[in-house]
Amino acid sequence: MNKKLKVGIGTDAFPPTTDGISNVAQNYAAEINKKLGEAVIITPKNPNQLDYKYNYEIFRYKSWWIPSKEGYSIGWPFKDELHQAIINMNFDILHSHAPLATSYYFRRVVEKKKIPVVLTYHTKYEYDIDRRVPTKPARDFAYKFLLNNINAADEVWVTSEGTSDSLRKLGYQGDYIVMPNGCDLPITNVSADDIAVIKRKHNVPEDVPIFLYSGRMIWYKNIELILDACSKLKRDGKKFKLIMLGFGADETAIKRYIRKSGLKNDVIWTGKILDRQEILSYYGIADILLFPSVFDTNGLVVREAAACATPSLLVHGSCAAEGIDDGKTGFLCMESAHSVAVTLAKIMDNKELLRKVGKQAQSDIYISWEDSVQKAYKRYENLVENFNK
Predict the structure, then answer these.
(1) CB–CB of 153/96 below 8 Å?
(2) What pLDDT does 368 receive?
(3) What would you measure as the largest C-alpha separation in the chain, in angstroms?
(4) 3-class SS at 299?
(5) Residue 241 in 3-state DSSP?
(6) Residue 212 per-residue DSSP state
(7) 324 near 312, Cβ under 8 Å?
(8) What string of DSSP letters covers 18-46?
(9) Strand 6-10's sheet: what is its strand order?
(10) Which end of the chain is least crowded, N or C, by CB within 10 Å?
(11) CA-to-CA distance for 210 and 289, rounded, in angstroms?
(12) What's the whole-model pTM score?
């Protein structure tokens, strides 16, 4: 296909809301606009939006704003004039990154004008539904709403093979394509000077292993498991520092648990950091990333750590662990604090092994957003061509 495509990138989360899907949407838009075609972000309005910072178009539709620590807006795509606005943009393809409000918006649009729609299923929504929706009728409605949005897509993508289990739990029976996410951090050997700056900032001794957790501060990412493992290591006389990088709905409770566990002097809490260069430095200072989440479907942070030659400790059989060769491109453990602690005790003081595995991860599992989006764009072309036939 010689024609450059115009792509509508739909996302319910976009800055100032920051999460994994927000990151994905930004990188899809940036890479497509760079040299492939034209991409427009389609997302709910946010009272704190700073869209002028982006060098591509962002179309905001009506939303309900609920003040919260994570800053999410709830899209309200029910007005006919909104559907016509999308139609008037003459998109070749629409790509939704969540089966929520924006996917429903796309469903309403294609009722009026047939445009092929791709849906990427990024996260295990049943976790949030089962945790936050109090009654069974409401949960059933939520599951049905998501399933209808998924079924309405012409093609469904997942970011890892294991994500399909979540799709099946929602009731989806169709086909899917594995389309892995990339990493926006460049392959970097973080300088000794940058590492020294971070160590001075947090008063980190030179001779202790440094663990890192990077991501949203939410219990269902198995953060309690990390803290319990660290507590066990401390009781066994092991010295270390644990850096907690990120923010989220449960951070107050997590800080309380850290104090209760006797880890207050062993944990460094960075808070919300948006500067990607500064984040690189934190990956660079770490000996190992602790990411025992079984919730995440791909784990962008694992590739981010690999960009800096930092290996990850992951749960065997989790989506985040797909493609990881234990002891070669990362480390695997069972989903228990005991297993995390035992695995760390074996490797935390072996600097040479950690460096070797980190370098192999950088070589083997890192994928750039440029390569990832080029692969996705070729799939767009194929889908548009078949759709038009």
Answers:
(1) yes
(2) 93
(3) 68
(4) coil
(5) strand
(6) E
(7) yes
(8) -SHHHHHHHHHHHHIIIII-EEEEEEE--
(9) 58-61, 38-44, 6-10, 93-96, 117-121, 155-158, 177-178
(10) C
(11) 9
(12) 0.83
